[in-house]
Amino acid sequence: MIEPPSPTLQLRIDEDALAENWCALNEVSGSARAGAAVKADCYGLGADRCVPVLRDAGCRDFFVAHWSEVAGVVAHVPAAQVAVLHGPISAAECEYAQATGAVPVINSVIQAELWAANGGGACHLMVDTGINRLGIRPEEADHPAIRMLDVSVLMSHLADADVDGAMNAQQLAAFENVRAHIPHRETSLSNSAGIGLGDDYRFDLTRPGLALYGGVPRRELASKIRQVAYPRAAILQTRWIEAGEAVGYNATFRATERMRIGVVSLGYADGILRAWGGAALAHEGRCLPILGKVSMDMIVLDLADAADIGEGDWVNLPYRLPDAAQQTGLSQYELLTLLGNRFART
Ligand SMILES: *Cc1c(COP(=O)(O)O)cnc(C)c1O
């Protein structure tokens, strides 16, 4: 088969920035070491590209959500360094853990019993201290199935670490309390935002995800985190439209004068949702406002500020995550994980 031509959508991953972000978060983690949340294909940026960079930077603790994500990470790091946050809900998943050596995070008494009945062995244990998602309740710490576990890392997860509410201290106190009741080798509480909360929250191991990939969940981290993901798209066509003519579905933009517009090869199927309507793309520092509604595969731009660009030229999607989140009303997490498979990761 002939090689396909190079895609008109590119997602440049700044590998140096990714490595530096991990090193910065490892440093801010103080006496704790930083791990890495690499679930959802490294937040959409591509595990094949990102996991080796994190490994080479020094990371030894990797977290995925699904068992289906293990193989893609184990291709680059030892399975014993890969933990599965969802834990096992079937014998088949326990068998897979035993066969691969990936470590289950046990989240309930039922999971603890299932794990023991299917060979058991070292695992992590999640205690829910207030987010009410996954994890045993603190009062289940004394359950026989929990007492029998061989816990490597005792974990909890913060619900509100990106905000300065009362909940962080409450969760910290609950975690400190349960720590005394469950035998374990190491402890871990903080995600990216939690690292910014200070020494008390860092324990033995931190679990940043978002900030590795350029997200800034707390201003304490702003000066330390660099942008990693740079999406850009090619212009497919330029055209002149006359005053009174409309652009796109439902004609939500109508020209008030003759103007030159450009059609770029990205749309909501690529994760650039209609929430981007009213925002702008950029070309060499010049602003190219989006006209009308975002289509599935196309976005139309006002080229008034860029008379010199045309078919085949690249335009950048401004993806400094805190700013893009403000622009679109999407979360920094959503902005990363939405980026679709038509982007060539370069
Ligand atoms: C996703 C996840 C993380 C990483 O969180 P960020 O906010 O992206 O840093 C850490 N721990 C758990 C349990 C998670 O699910």
Question: What's this entry about, in short?
Answer:
Helix content is 26%, strand content 22%.
What key attributes describe this structure?
346 residues; alpha/beta; TIM Barrel; Lyase, Ornithine Decarboxylase, Chain A, domain 1; 8-stranded mixed beta sheet; 7-stranded parallel beta sheet; 19 strands; 26% helix; elongated; binds pyridoxal-5'-phosphate
Provide the fold topology.
Layout lengths: L8 E5 L1 H14 L4 E2 L1 E2 L1 H5 L3 H11 L4 E3 L5 H5 L7 E3 L6 H10 L2 E4 L2 H9 L4 E5 L17 H4 L2 E6 L11 H13 L6 E3 L3 H4 L9 E2 L22 E13 L4 E2 L5 E2 L4 E6 L15 E4 L2 E6 L7 E4 L11 E3 L4 H8 L3 H6 L6 E2 L1
Parallel strand pairs: 1-19, 2-10, 3-4, 4-5, 5-6, 6-7, 7-8, 8-9
Antiparallel strand pairs: 1-11, 11-14, 11-18, 12-13, 14-17, 15-16, 16-17
Helix pairs in contact: 1-3
Bound molecules: pyridoxal-5'-phosphate.
The site of pyridoxal-5'-phosphate has 11 residues, from helix 9.
Describe the structure.
The protein is of the alpha/beta class and 346 residues long. It has two domains: 14-221, Alanine racemase (TIM Barrel), CATH 3.20.20; 229-318, Lyase, Ornithine Decarboxylase, Chain A, domain 1. Helix content is 26%, strand content 22%. It contains eleven helices and 19 strands. The chain has helices at 15-28, 39-43, 47-57, 70-74, 91-100, 109-117, 144-147, 167-179, 192-195, 321-328, 332-337, and strands at residues 9-13, 33-34, 36-37, 62-64, 82-84, 103-106, 122-126, 150-155, 186-188, 205-206, 229-241, 246-247, 253-254, 259-264, 280-283, 286-291, 299-302, 314-316, 344-345. The radius of gyration is 23 Å and the shape is elongated. The protein binds pyridoxal-5'-phosphate (PLP). Residues 37, 39, 85, 157, 191-193, 207-210 line the site of pyridoxal-5'-phosphate. The site of pyridoxal-5'-phosphate has 11 residues, from helix 9.
